[in-house]
Design goal:
This protein is of the alpha+beta class. The chain is 18% helix and 33% strand. Strands 1-2-3-6-7 form a five-stranded antiparallel sheet. The protein has a three-stranded antiparallel sheet with strand order 4-5-8. Strand 4 and strand 5 form a beta hairpin. The longest helix has 16 residues, at 26-41. It binds nickel (II) ion. Nickel (II) ion is lined by residues 89-91, 131, 135.
Length: 156
């Protein structure tokens, strides 16, 4: 188990495009494990992209609702509908914005063994997929904000 250093607002790596993974090997599996450990160390973290811990590879881990996923080279292959969301991000503590996201998102990725998986998320899970996959292209949730939301510490 290894906890990686989280990267926060203002760190240029959050704006970098992550690179495709050619080979899902032990090194990649170790990074995914470390990302999951780091996610579990956070207070309310649902998911994390690799550049949030300083690694420019297309890797995402999710432990949210009924989904426990380690995704390599994930991409959205289908999206339908629309929903209004409230979004936050581990790299931007205390900030919340309203966004408009698809209601349903289908993602294709490789799992930690290099096998292709296809997974569909609805509602909050669809929001989560969109948010995390955008991180891999250097896009953060604030870029999609339609309004800033004030949430007091009591509500969190
Ligand atoms: Ni985020």
């Amino acid at each position: 188990m290894a906890i990686r250093q989280m990267r926060y607002s203002g760190d240029p790596i959050l704006r970098k495009k992550c690179k495709y993974v050619d080979d899902v090997n032990d090194k990649i599996r170790r990074i995914l494990d470390d990302m999951m450990d780091t996610l579990h160390e956070t207070e309310n973290g649902a998911a994390m992209a690799a550049n949030q811990v300083g690694i420019l590879k297309r890797l995402v881990v999710i432990d949210y609702l009924d989904n426990y996923l380690k995704l390599v080279n994930p991409e959205i292959i289908e999206q339908t509908g629309e929903q209004s969301c409230i979004e936050g991000c581990l790299s931007f503590p205390g900030r919340y914005v309203r966004t408009i996201r698809p209601q349903s998102v289908t993602v294709r990725a490789l799992d930690e063994n290099g096998s292709e998986i296809i997974v569909t998320g609805e509602g909050d899970m669809a929001k989560c997929f969109c948010h995390e996959l955008e991180h891999l292209d250097g896009i953060v949730f604030l870029d999609n904000a339609v309004e800033e939301i004030e949430i007091s510490a009591d509500d969190e």
